[in-house]
Design goal:
By secondary structure, this protein is mainly alpha-helical. It has a domain of about 90 residues. It contains 11 helices and 4 strands; from the N terminus they run αααααββαββααααα. The protein has a two-stranded antiparallel sheet. α1 runs antiparallel to α2 and α2 runs parallel beside α5. This is MIF4G-like type 2 domain-containing protein.
Length: about 270
């Protein structure tokens, strides 16, 4: 359903890539669409066929990943602030409790009998301070637990986004019948073993549409892998088991590994 909504937005604003991006961004902000839906939309047939013609789907994908990453960063900062707040609240609650207990334990002798030294009004105030300090500490702890839950959810969302994105890219390249050619992803040209600079340049100008699609797609794969390497590496074991398997296309593996600065295994 969410994929259909994104498709409708893209179709409605087909003449304005800016408005498409803004609308999808707002919908992500309101949590109307998920990152997973965006990944599925980006790798839908209508977008796959235009990978070499427009960067829009990739930019929307980057924006979705950025939002999750920023949310994770913000939550970690908030949790750090709450941790400091808990320490301060603990100290305040302990101090208020000690003041109340000290005042309550003070006795004086009146007519030969021990009686409360502090006035009832002051004891009542001190007891109120201690209770409020404890309530404040409990409130901060509850906020901390809530933020922990949100952080775990965001981390899980990021894991699903990264693994699904890699899997969808792999499936896209597998079904695209990528030509068997040695692609220089740094320079964006194909090299079929010709050492002549002039002839190589001529070959690059004569690259067909399908080859250009492959070059562009692999270029985006490498760029995203480099940009979000810090978010990809924590899930590398899952990706190795589910995506970077023996049947993966070698050009896709090379693009991802280059982006991650990871050595390509020897055949």
């Amino acid at each position: 359903m969410q994929v259909l909504v994104i498709s409708e937005v893209s179709s409605y604003w087909k003449n304005s890539t800016q408005m498409t991006a803004i609308t999808i961004d707002r919908m992500m902000g309101y949590r109307l669409i998920s990152n997973l839906a965006i990944v599925k939309w980006v790798f839908s047939e209508v977008n796959i066929n235009q990978f070499h013609l427009t960067d829009q789907p990739w930019e929307i994908l980057r924006n979705a990943i950025n939002k999750t990453y920023n949310r994770i960063s913000d939550l970690r900062k908030e949790i750090h602030t709450l941790d400091n707040g808990i320490l301060l609240a603990e100290e305040a609650a302990l101090k208020a409790k000690q003041e109340y207990e000290t005042a309550e334990s003070k006795l004086e002798i009146l007519d030969g009998q021990p009686v409360q030294a502090e006035k009832p009004g002051r004891l009542k105030r001190l007891k109120g301070y201690a209770e409020r300090a404890k309530d404040e500490e409990n409130s901060i702890r509850e906020s901390r637990e809530m933020k922990d839950g949100l952080l775990l959810r965001a981390l899980e969302e990021n894991k699903i986004t990264q693994t699904t994105r890699c899997m969808r890219t792999k499936m896209t390249l597998d079904t695209a019948e990528t030509p068997k050619m040695d692609i220089d992803l740094e320079n964006g040209v194909s090299n079929n073993g010709n050492d002549s600079g002039v002839e190589t340049a001529a070959i690059s100008y004569e690259t067909g549409e399908h080859e250009q699609w492959c070059l562009t797609t692999l270029g985006h794969v490498k760029a995203i892998s480099r940009q979000y390497a810090a978010e990809i590496w924590p899930h590398i074991e899952i990706l190795d088991a589910e995506v970077f398997t023996e049947d993966i296309h070698p050009l896709y593996r090379k693009a991802v590994y280059d982006g991650l600065c990871r050595s390509t295994p020897e055949p």
